[in-house]
Structures are given as C-alpha cells and as structure tokens.
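Ops channel
N.P.: pipeline sanity check, posting one input/output pair.
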C-alpha cells in the first residue's frame, strides 16, 4: 500500500474486502459497522462537548453555514434536544445541496462524506462524488459561497486536506482564504 494513500480510500477498500461478495459495498455488514461505531454517541458526549455544540448551533441560528467530513450527527441530536430541527444533508442529494448552497436550507449540516444514519449516502471513494462535482449549477453556487461567505467546518486536524473538500472549495479563484482548524 502506498504511504500517502488517503485514509478515506483505505476505508473504502477495507469495506469492499470485508463485505460479503455481493459487489455491493452498502451491505448489511457496512450498516451494522456504522451503527456499532456511531449509535449512542449522545451518551458518550462530554459536558465540554455540549458547550461547543451550543456555540455551533448559535452560529447556525445567526446564519452560519456548517459543513463537516464527520459521519456523526451529534450536532443534529444536540439541536433536537434544544428544540431546533437540523437536517443532515449529503452530496448524493444534489437538489438539497443546491438549496443549501443557495442558503435556502439554513438549518442544515452538509456532511460531505455522508452521515451514518443514511449508509447509502456515505461516500468513501472519490468516484462517489462525481455526480455532484459534474453538476455545474451546484458547483457554481458552492464556489459563489466560498468567495463570499464564511463557514463553520467541523472536522479534525488536517481534514481540510480531504480531496472532496478541496474539490468543492479550493477551486482557483481571485480570492484568498485562510483556514483555521481545530479538533473536537
């Protein structure tokens, strides 16, 4: 295996190798693994994490756009407990992504790799993003946002190095952006 191979690609390869020989990487095995890892995260959430979630929710209520490479839905769960419904979006629903980019779905979290509660929307290989990346209307709207808006990006460490994130937001433009990352 190459040293610099993207970890998301490694996960995709593992799921294919560990899944039943149906050729379908969205097998029950995959769904079961996702739920085993992510289900019941709310019980494991630390008190300090709730303060961060509250801050992000307040930013969203003030108009901030939120996107993440994370598969979890902790922000959505936290918001529901606060009486606010947040929608989880993934890149497989181009219409909703377009509406998010046009700021018509203000209280939505864009999960660029998908969210565990919708295993069919999880993408672990760049080929899975081809439809949205080829959709010029969606890409134009996302690029317009990139040039004019600020985002709250939930991820960890070097997740802005993610190839999908870069394809969506780091197209060459006349504007210069600085990214600040922190883990949570």
């Amino acid at each position: 295996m190459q040293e610099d191979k993207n970890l998301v690609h490694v996960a995709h390869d593992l799921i294919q190798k560990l899944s039943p020989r149906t050729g379908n990487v969205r097998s029950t095995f995959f769904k079961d693994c996702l739920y085993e890892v992510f289900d019941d995260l709310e019980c494991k959430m630390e008190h300090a994490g709730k303060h961060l979630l509250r801050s992000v929710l307040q930013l969203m209520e003030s108009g901030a756009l939120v996107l993440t490479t994370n598969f979890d839905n902790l922000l959505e769960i936290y918001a529901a407990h606060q009486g606010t419904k947040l929608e989880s979006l993934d890149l497989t629903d181009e219409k909703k992504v377009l509406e998010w980019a046009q700021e018509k779905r203000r209280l939505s979290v864009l999960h660029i790799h998908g969210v565990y509660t919708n295993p069919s929307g999880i993408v672990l290989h760049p080929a899975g993003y081809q439809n949205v990346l080829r959709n010029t209307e969606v890409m134009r709207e996302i690029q317009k946002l990139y040039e004019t808006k600020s985002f709250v990006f939930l991820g960890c460490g070097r997740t802005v190095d993610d190839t999908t994130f870069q394809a969506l937001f780091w197209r060459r433009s006349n504007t210069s952006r600085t990214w600040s990352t922190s883990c949570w």
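N.P.: looks fine end to end. Confidence is low (pLDDT under 50) at residues 172-184.
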